[in-house]
Design a protein that fits this description.
The protein has about 140 residues and is of the alpha+beta class. About 40% of the residues lie in helices and about 20% in strands. A three-stranded antiparallel sheet has the order 1-2-3, with no helix packed on it. A hairpin with a 2-residue loop joins strand 5 and strand 6. Helix 2 crosses helix 3, helix 2 packs across helix 5 and helix 3 crosses helix 4. The two termini are about 35 Å apart.
Length: about 140
């Protein structure tokens, strides 16, 4: 059993990173302890990953990172019905993972957010086509 965390007053809480919502550290008697992102940020991130946990939704987002497509084209390329694609795209749009604009009678979907694009690119760079994890190609610095 570990020792309880020391009592902390407001003066000992320090934020680190680019924004106010970044990692929180608490200075205690034994040094700094990482507490992590605020609960709201964690909950929002978990919802985002939850949306992307569906293979169909992830496929639709991946397609929308490649180019802008209408619902019919996305459905065809993802191998699902237009109704299914439309339902998933609606959820992705509400969550802010995709954007949509009208082009005549068509709704055109894309991913404009560079963070979402990077997240999708990174996961597919890390997982090989056979579903295994790709080896990390980052050189390890010599000790």
């Amino acid at each position: 059993m570990s020792a309880p965390e020391p009592a902390v007053d407001a003066a000992t809480v320090v934020r680190s990173g680019r924004s106010a919502g970044s990692t929180t550290y608490i200075r205690g008697a034994a040094g700094q302890h990482t507490v992590g992102p605020p609960r709201r940020q964690l909950a929002s991130a978990a919802r985002t990953f939850g949306l992307l946990s569906s293979p169909v939704r992830l496929h639709l987002v991946w397609l929308a990172t490649q180019d802008s497509y209408d619902v019919g084209t996305l459905a065809d390329r993802a191998g699902v019905s237009v109704a299914t694609a439309s339902q998933h795209l609606g959820k992705l749009r509400i969550a802010g993972l995709t954007t949509v604009h009208r082009q005549g009678r068509h709704h055109i979907y894309t991913v404009d957010d560079p963070h979402v694009r990077a997240l999708v690119d990174q996961i597919f760079a890390h997982i090989t086509p056979d579903g295994t994890l790709a080896p990390d190609r980052t050189p390890v610095p010599a000790a």
